[in-house]
Amino acid sequence: MSVEVGFRAAAAVAVPLLILLAVGRLDLAAYATFGAFTALYGRNEPYRLRLRSVSIAAVAMLVSISLGVIVAVAGEPLWLVTVLLVLIVVAGTLLATAFQLLPTQPLFFVFALLVCAAVPTTAQDALPRIGLAAAVAAFSWVLTLSGWVVRRWAGDRAARTGAVLLKKLHRRPGVDTTVFRDGRVWLTAAQNAVGVLIAGGVALALGLGHAYWAVVSLVAVIPPARAAHSISRSLHRILGTVGGVGVAAVVLFWSPPAVVVILVIVVCQFFAEMLVGRHYGYALLFITPMALAVSHLAAPVPLGPLLFDRVIETALGAGVGIALVLLARAIERGRTPTI
Description:
The chain is mainly α. It has one domain (about 5-335). It has 13 helices and no strands. It is globular, with a radius of gyration of 20 Å.
C-alpha cells in the first residue's frame, strides 16, 4: 500500500481549506472539498490513463456541483432536485462503469449535488462558488498528475543505479463501450434510481433533517455494476457508514476549533484514498466522518441532533439498499437458465 496517493489526496483538500481558513471563508468549505475529491480518482494508473480518469472525474464533479448550485439559487424545489438526482445517479453509474473509474460508484457525484443544493445561494454567489470548486479541481488534477515528473526523475536515477524506487502502476482501466446494452449495468442504474427516490422520499416524509444523507447511504450500499449482489458486502458498507458516524461523534463532540476539523478532514481524505480501492467498507469509516466534518465546518449545527439524524438516515438508506440488493439477486436468479 503506497502512501504516495494518500499524501496527494490529503494535500488536495488541505491547501484550499487552509486558505479559506486564513481568509475567513470556511462557509465555502463544501465547494472546495468537493473539488478536491478529484484527487480520489486515477490511483495506481499509468499517467496516460490517469489523465483520462482524473479529467473525467473532474468534469463529473464540476457538473454535479454546478447543478447543485443552480438548484440552490432556484430555492431547492423538490421536483428539480428529484429530476437531477435521478439523472446524476444514472449517468454517474454509466460513466463510472464505461470508463472503469475507481471509486466505482456515483457516491461523490450524488453527494456533491445534494449538499450544494441544500446550501442557500444567491444568483450573485453562484459563479464564484462554482469557480472555487473549479479552481480546486484544477489544483487537484495537477497534483494527481504531478507524480509523472517524480517518476520520470526517479526512473532516470533507477536506470543508472539499477534500483527500484517506486512501485509499478498496475491498474489499467479501459473504455467499455458495451455498458449501454448490458442489462446488468442498467439493473444497477435502476437500483440506484429507485433507491434514492424511496430513501429520500421516506426521509422527507419522516421530517428528518437533510434527507440527502439517506440517499448517500443508499448509494454507498448498492454494489457497483456487474459486481456480485452480496449481502455481506452490503453489510460491510453499512457497518462502515455507521462506524464512521461513531468516529465523527468522538472527534466532534467537544466542538473543536476549525483548524482541528480541517485536520480531521485531511486525515480522513488520506485514509479514504488509501483504502477505497481495497475495501470500500473500511474506506467508509473515513469517508463518513469526512463528510460530516465538511458539513460541520460549512454550517455548524448542534452535534447531537446531527448525529441522531445521520444514524437514522443511514439505517433508512441502508435498509432500502439491502432490500434492493435482495431484489436484484432474485432477478438475476430468474434470468439464469436452468439445465
